[in-house]
Design goal:
The complex is a heterodimer of chains A (261) and B (270). By secondary structure, chain A is α/β, with parallel strands linked by helices. Chain A has one domain: Carbon-nitrogen hydrolase (Nitrilase/N-carbamoyl-D-aminoacid amidohydrolase, 4-Layer Sandwich), CATH 3.60.110.10. Chain A contains 4 helices and 14 strands. In chain A, α1 packs parallel to α2. In chain B, β1, α2 and β2 form a beta-alpha-beta unit. In chain B, strands 3-2-1-4-5 form a 5-stranded parallel β-sheet, sandwiched between helices. The longest helix of chain B has 23 residues. The chains are: A alpha/beta (261), B alpha/beta (270). At the A-B interface, α1 and α2 of A face α10 of B.
């Protein structure tokens, strides 16, 4: 499967601007003959949106924009990040979600399972956790879609884990054939090496390719460095996006690429 | 009162300092400080400029007398004039009115911080919630200080508190309560040159902040679409100022501070 990783720099809350970025990237993916275009965590709203998500008018507008994006899709798949709502009247009823659309419609939504609440992360204030994860069959592949923190809890990699659940293992049990993780991972020195090492261990152990798309850009004090990564099923890093600027990468999961050292 | 007292006891401050302008906010903060810590532990400084009205100075003196506190009086004018004189070369002789207004607030901040430093007084900031919301305050000027006493109290509530304090006898001079609120940073200035009447402003702010309402709902209640748009924009745009403000005692369900977290850089209203 040819996956286009769209490493964009959204503006928090500026839905028109972000929507255009997503649709422009989607067009570029079609031109590049990709099967699927993927965008970072909360790419439609910008990360972190903080208390903006508590406003019902904001949520309504996000929902409308998400549907508008979906309505413009054709056969090529599109995954972007946005907030979504459930109505179970427990918790905040808001989720940090990955939205998969094609053929003019939202086809599948995967909520984030692991909700970080340490250091600069403040997500339990806003987001309910996913009840479960499911793979989604698309163009003969089983996509295991996860969001940022979901992939940071590998039992073999971490000496001390933050969570009991491991959504990535749940996706693998459902025979996921490709992992997709959409992220907003703030920069700190040494962080890029940590990401690479952790993801390499995970993809090697589980023998599965991974497309890991990150946002780029500074949001007040948080700096997102981009450097989206693609790993083959042997734990090799085969593609990496530019640091500190927007980028567009094509990752062909079937193609053999030389590892980047 | 309790919040201020606790802050001082737990941090080991015996005395506090307030810059007294002759307006409502600094009068109320000074009153609260006296009630919390005793009149012997509250110092105030009057820092008039050429724009300060005689009434303001006289009102401040009456308040100082009513509360039985120590006060100092020092003009900021020579330092303002000399600063302008010195800096005009790099400003190409073009000093904007707003720059000069803020400069006055900053010289006052400088005096207060210097006094506070030297005498180990805790400087209290006197901004109210309405001005903090729309950014009607000067960074490194009147925002100087270690604790914001009434930054979670709307201006209309500040008036209610003043009337409550005066219920039996006039402690806050009635002239302070009656006069039009003014920063007195340029001739004949009043807050309402820049802001809508506080009754209206506070109504909008309450809906936006406490009730989490958005533009469409607020404009339906208020009617004046442009005004609502302007006020909400002012609140959003001044996140950068509030982010640098002293911690504010929380008395409402939604105070500025870590209970209300908004991105500084954002484009929701664009």
């Amino acid at each position: 499967m040819k996956i286009a990783l769209c490493q964009i720099d959204p503006i928090i809350g500026h839905l028109d601007y972000n929507k255009k970025k997503i649709l422009d990237g989607y067009k570029k993916a079609i031109e590049a003959k990709a099967d699927l275009a993927i965008f970072p965590e909360l790419s439609l709203v910008g990360y972190p949106p903080l208390d903006l998500v508590e406003k019902s008018e904001f949520r309504k507008t996000v929902n409308k924009a998400a549907k508008e994006i979906a309505s413009q899709t054709g056969g090529v798949g599109l995954i972007f990040g946005a907030i979504t709502e459930d109505n179970d009247k427990i918790g905040t009823d808001i989720h940090n979600s990955a939205i998969l659309c094609f053929d003019g419609k939202i086809q599948f939504v995967q909520h984030k399972t692991l909700i970080p609440n340490y250091d600069v992360f403040d997500e339990m204030r806003y987001f309910d956790s996913a009840e479960s994860v499911s793979v989604f069959e698309f163009k003969e592949e089983k996509l295991g879609i996860s969001i940022c923190e979901d992939i940071w809890n590998d039992a073999d990699y971490w000496y001390r884990r933050r969570y009991h659940k491991d959504p990535i293992q749940d996706l693998l049990k459902q025979n996921a054939s490709i992992l997709i993780n959409i992220s907003a991972s703030p920069y700190a020195y040494g962080k890029r090496c940590a990401r690479q090492e952790m993801l390499s261990v995970l993809t090697k152990k589980d023998a599965i390719p991974l497309a890991y798309v990150c946002c780029v850009g500074a949001q007040t004090d948080l700096i997102f460095d981009g450097a989206s990564m693609c790993f083959d099923g042997n734990g090799n890093l085969v593609k990496i996006g530019k640091a500190f600027e927007e980028d567009f990468l094509i990752f062909d999961t079937k193609e053999k690429s030389a590892p980047i050292i | 009162m309790f919040g201020l007292k606790e802050y001082c006891i737990k941090l080991g401050f015996k005395k506090v300092l307030v810059g007294l302008s002759g307006g409502m906010d600094s009068a109320i903060v000074t009153y609260i400080a006296v009630k919390a810590l005793g009149s012997e532990n509250v110092n105030v400084i009057l820092m008039p400029s050429k724009y300060s009205s005689e009434g303001s100075i006289k009102d401040s003196e009456v308040l100082v007398h009513n509360l039985g506190i120590q006060s100092e009086n020092i003009s900021i004018q020579p330092v303002v004039d000399e600063t302008i004189n010195q800096i005009k070369y790099i400003l190409k002789n073009d000093i904007k009115s707003l720059t000069e207004e803020n400069l006055q607030a900053r010289i006052r901040g400088l005096y207060l911080m210097t006094y506070s430093n030297n005498n180990e007084n805790l400087l209290l900031t006197t901004g109210n919630k309405s001005e903090m919301a729309v950014g009607y305050c000067t960074l490194y000027g009147d925002m100087c200080g270690g604790l914001a006493v009434i930054a979670d109290v709307y201006k209309t509530d500040v008036y209610r508190i003043a009337n409550y304090i005066n219920r039996e006898k006039e402690i806050i001079p009635q002239t302070i309560i009656n006069k039009a609120p003014s920063a007195e940073l340029k001739p004949n200035q009043t807050d309402q040159d820049t802001l809508p009447p506080y009754e209206l402003l506070d109504k909008i702010l309450r809906m936006y902040l406490e009730e989490n309402k958005e533009f469409n709902e607020i404009k339906d209640v208020i009617g004046d679409e442009d005004l609502v748009k302007k006020v909400l924009r002012m609140v959003d745009m001044n996140e950068f100022k509030r982010n640098q403000a002293a911690p504010a005692l929380r008395v409402s369900s939604k105070a500025f501070g870590y209970g209300r977290r908004y991105p500084i850089v954002q484009g929701w209203r664009k």
